Amino acid sequence: MREQEQETTRRDALAWLLRAGAGAVVASFAAKAAQRQTADRTVWQIDPRACIQCGRCETECVLHPSAVKCVHGYAMCGYCKLCFGYFKSDAARLDEAAENQICPTGAISRVFIEDPYFEYHIDESLCTGCGLCVKGCTHFGNGSLYLQIRHDRCTNCNACRIAEKCPAQAISRVPASRPYLLKESL
Amino acid sequence: MSVAVWIPVATVAASRFPQPQFDSGHTVPQTVHPPFEALVPAWADVLILALALAVTVWLAHRVRSRRWLLVFSLVCLAWFGFIRQGCICPVGAVQNVAVAAWSGGGLPWSVAALFALPLLTALLFGRVFCGAVCPLGALQDLFIITPQRVPRSVDAVLRLVPPAVLAVGLVYAINGAGYLICRTDPFVGLFRRSAPMPMFLTGAAVLLVGMVVARPYCRYFCPYGVLLEWCSRLAWRPFAITAHECINCRLCVGTCPVDAITVPRAAPGDTARRGLFRRFVLMLMLAPLVVAGCVAAGWLLGAQAARAHPSVIVAERLAQTPESEMDLHPEIEAFKRTGRTPEQAAAEAAVTVARFRRGCAWAGAFVGVIMALRLLGMTRLQRRTLHEADRERCIVCGRCFAACPKNVQRSTSNAQLSNQKGDT
Prior knowledge:
The structure holds 2 protein chains of 2 kinds. By secondary structure, chain A is α+β, with helices and mostly antiparallel strands. Chain A folds into 2 domains: 1-37; 42-185, no CATH class. Chain A is built from 4 helices and 6 strands; from the N terminus they run H-E-H-E-E-E-H-E-H-E. Chain A has helices spanning 2-35, 56-60, 132-140, 161-165; strands at 42-46, 68-72, 108-114, 117-122, 145-149, 171-175. In chain A, the strands form 3 sheets. Chain A has a two-stranded antiparallel sheet. Chain B folds into 2 domains: 44-264 and 390-407, no CATH class; 270-377, no CATH class. Chain B has 20 helices and 2 strands. Chain B has helices at 6-11, 42-63, 66-83, 90-103, 109-125, 128-133, 135-142, 152-158, 161-174, 180-183, 188-192, 197-209, 216-220, 223-233, 270-305, 310-320, 330-338, 342-377, 405-411, 414-423; strands at residues 261-262, 388-389. Chain B has a two-stranded antiparallel sheet. In chain B, helix 3 (66-83) crosses helix 7 (135-142) and helix 4 (90-103) crosses helix 5 (109-125). Chain B starts with 5 loop residues before the first helix and ends with a helix. Classes of the chains: A alpha+beta, B mainly alpha. Chains A and B meet through helix 1 and helix 4 of A and helix 4, helix 5, helix 11 and helix 17 of B.
């Protein structure tokens, strides 16, 4: 009887040893990973310098419409009358008619400031992040229109789908305290 | 004319069309960028997970009530699933931890804690995380209608999938080909209530299959489950069907949806013993072959797996696209901007493929060793005298509680208790 008791204790001790060992492995693995810990949470963002406006941000984001929107860095804008982010390249007339606008959802509006300058505004609730205007502005204008992930919409997936599909690998994690890569301040 | 506004503008000198000086005194507006606002701070996420695990342990080991486990699993499904939208997830955190441990990049301590807490809990109390905390499990649990027994052979093969997913998922993550484990999460689209159609359909299909094969994702896919199984095997206080003495009435056997109740088994007789020993020797000889086969398979499939890596995608595109169609592919457009030559791209892709081959060979070895150990385990001399919950398979749903007459006795009056004693 005493022998049996002793055997169980030995067995228990062994089990505890194994358990402690496994616990130590898990803990040390987590500790090693967190060793060089980042002080801040991180969020996804597009580097507008690397972006080639392929249009996948609109279609590949898990959100519909996408969390990516076009933003306007006003400080970079030339206030052009003939804006390639606003008009189709083959626009018949340079007026506000829908068939002349490059934006498929009519999210860009323009306001006359003074001759010959116009100010362009983006209605983010209409923008789908397709990047057509960005392409026009980047290729033929100042590049003041560019795509950014909007953090009022982004769900901050662990594996960002558009980051994986981006042909230019322009999307990466940035500190949550500075969640935008603004072209005018880059 | 406000000069102040012009100072930052002057730094953007490269613009094609310099910003005009407005005679009308128009001031340039500023775009408002919505800040990132976390629903709860990181420490609260960890605290909530720890609390949820503690409550589940209490419900499964003390209260021992299926109903309360179910209610609490709904709470966790609502919070971790629909409110936190499935992305503070120990299952996916495996990849973040592996990447950080491998490449030494930064990792928020909260992610490390999310990864470790359910495993440490499993070391003490079994897979309670699967029982009520994990939203993926909780969702599938609701769809269990007529769970059927999966044939042993099919089950044995399917149970090799989770280790394979874990190993290949880590190869992908460490080598920078994205987070495979997150990409194959069937329900995250449901939690966000927004996803591409294939994601929704996969989720729906898993739930439909789950009506007859209980918790298919948990049992035959979940890579985190592999780690939880290992920890649960060593559990200090594993999940128990009854807190009392088992009377081997067999009433619990049919209630387990995941076939995790082991039934008593007599010690094998002498002939059976000899048969088992012969099989053991056979398996021991077979084991190296199994491992070698899996390593070879990993090596061969490695090249295929590497096709998810950006450098290989670019190289393939460059090699396959005819000159006239070069402008059609965004990958090629982006590649041209880097100013590298196609030869450099091909060389880089070759390096990546080699890395994936090596990684997948290791993954194959991992799966092979598990397969060999399981084959050897089948020849073990087993003698069991009680009905018990299998430490690895039991997902702590608590369906067996109500079936056990010993559990029922506890909650009935003494008079009924003595009656029931007369019956048995």
